[in-house]
Design goal:
Length: 107
């Protein structure tokens, strides 16, 4: 049976990376038709370990993310760098506030 979560996460990661199926195919060495089947609802085969590994490297996401084991946070530093200086300072303040709040709850 096809894993719909894998299909959705693969497509999300590809689009987030700004790649077409052809570009992803070129980047990971998996033919475009196979990528299309992995993203679509009609396929019945699950990807091999090697395919998952190549896709995760090309898309810069973890294999755990593609498999639905955990949420992807690897793109967070890149998103942080894309923010303006004022917004970065707001994020820093928010993080410090959360750390302080966590410390208070631990007591």
């Amino acid at each position: 049976m096809k894993d719909k979560a894998f299909s959705q996460r693969l497509k999300w990661a590809r689009l987030k990376a700004g790649l077409t199926q052809r570009e992803l195919s070129d980047a990971c060495g998996i033919d475009r038709a196979s990528i299309s089947k992995l993203e679509g609802d009609s396929g019945t085969r699950n990807p091999s370990y090697h395919a998952i590994r190549r896709l995760s490297i090309a898309l810069r996401v973890s294999s755990d993310f593609l498999l639905g084991i955990k949420l992807e946070t690897a793109s967070m530093p890149r998103q942080f760098e894309e923010l303006g200086e004022r917004d970065r300072e707001i994020v820093r303040i928010l993080i410090e506030s959360m750390k302080e709040h966590k410390g208070e709850n631990a007591k």
